[in-house]
Amino acid sequence: MARIDDNGTVHEVAEGIADKATGRAIDNADLFRVGSVTKSFSAVVLLQLVDEGLLSLDTSVNTYLPGLLPDNRITVRHVLSHRSGLYDYTNTMFASTVPGFEAVRNKVFSYQELVDLSLKQPLGNTPGAAYSYSNTNFVVAGMLIERLTEKSVQSNYRTRIIEPLGLTDTSYVHPSTAISGRHANGYLTPDAAGAALVDSTEQTVSWAQSAGAVISSTKDLDTFFSALLRGKLTSAAQLTQMQQWVTVNSTQGYGLGLRRRDLSCGVSVYGHTGTVQGYYTYAFTSKDGGRSVTAVANTSNNVNVLNTMARTLESTFCGKPAATATKAAPARGSAPMERYEDIAPGVARD
């Protein structure tokens, strides 16, 4: 399903099943798990704390969280731009898609436990030297939020983003496993070809937390990213910092918890992608926040669906399918598809 908000003119499309057991059709009113779009929420809170004088982007994380990380050179900016070098523990956790998921479906982790999983591996690069997407970075972001505000991530999201923007469909309910209200069930595709889909709707998402545990709707995500790019959530100075890009590949950049995708028609769009078991999300807006689109699929670990999500951006902002959307993807059993598209958390293969 997808929702386009073009300066107040809304277009919605939905196709497919929200619940296989009942056969109910999916609809844009359905709630869903947004996965790594959560990272943009965490980044906004931290940039607000910069505005409030409680945080400096170029200060060592260990200044605020003494002894947490193995290298004092890792700054807050490095964490928010995925340049810390911290190993992504989900690479190991979800090396096998369904068994990995079932092992953590109902588990509750502390932030420290997740960081400890990461630190079993050495840093992948000198801090600041290279971009390497890692959920660990935004677990650290959650720890910073809670240390500096002495309030939970949930409380900060609510008072700093959800309530000011009137996001009535958005919540962070970790470690509850249920999605309250009308929602689309999520269905995880196993690695084995032809295996039955796994209903992954109910889970703690504790393995992601401030990196991926928000629940929302297409309407609310359109509103969120439009407001962000229009400067309604941070100062102009911090919005500029958020858009200091490091190169991901030839068509993508990453700022501070924000993605830039350069489309085939020369337009750049801004937002984030997300994967959590059973759900894909693409949520992007124009530079001025005037045109926004959120596209959602209630499945994951499926390269064909993933490519369709990318084509939605091309259709919305360029009026045509992406010429590169049908390029060859890695063969089944090769590198995780989520790394290929760079939209972790989660693992997908083809």
TrEMBL record:
Residues 338-350 have a biased composition (Basic and acidic residues). The keyword Magnesium does not apply. Residues 330-350 are annotated as: Disordered. Keywords: Carboxypeptidase, Hydrolase, Protease. It comes from the Bacteria. This is Putative D-alanyl-D-alanine carboxypeptidase. Residues 4-302 form the Beta-lactamase-related domain. The keyword RNA-binding does not apply. GO terms for molecular function: carboxypeptidase activity. Pfam families: Beta-lactamase. It comes from uncultured bacterium 8.
